[in-house]
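Question: Hello, beginner here. Any chance you could explain the protein record under this note? Any guidance would be welcome.
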Amino acid sequence: MNTEHYDEPGRLLPLEGVHNLRDLGGYPTQEGRQLRWGLLYRAGDLHGLSSKDQAFLEKRHIKTIVDFRGTQEKTRAPDGALATLVQTFELPIEAGSILDLCAAETEVRGEALMQELYGRLVEIARPQYRKFFSILADPAHTPLLFHCSAGKDRTGLAAAFILSALGVDRERIYQDYLLSAAYLREMIRQWLAAEPLLEAVLSVRRGYLEAAFAAIDAAFGGINRYVQEELGADTAGMREWYTEASP
């Protein structure tokens, strides 16, 4: 499906040194509302923030950052500073040795392992995502930016859970996820030139997110029960704050 409809003006922020930083606003919900712009942002790491990038984000009054990266990732690429930042929450999700297995296997096997990884993350990363939803429950934390290293896997799952909790339909959730493939196209090309065996790991494929939803259906009885019971999402409260009447 073409993602151009979802790549609307204002979604991708025009930064110099940060990739895949975008606003989750504008998506319609199944209740006839839409997500408010300027409250929730998803991104890759903020290590490359230029002075212009900093000023741009400070004008958006980013108050909270949620960082899903592990210790080594943060040490290699610490986030740049924002004058408007009030608090950073570190919720490390370590993908583990399965990424090394992906690199060692064939492309087909690598894709299967990435699907397995996504299925495992919905289980093993529940504490981090539950804490994330407790942060989202407090409007005082917004505008809020959440990120990992590339902003496509751990961040992609977090965005899918938010959009699900806010009542966005599944197809739009897939298309938001797949926008990372477009926004990271040049970076992925460079990564693959250096590490061709990592194609499955570095790619953004619908089947990965489908595997996560399938695991949630099998183990937790569907995404609604998962976000409410396993992640503790106050969906009613979130919809009141993060959505608004459609124009």
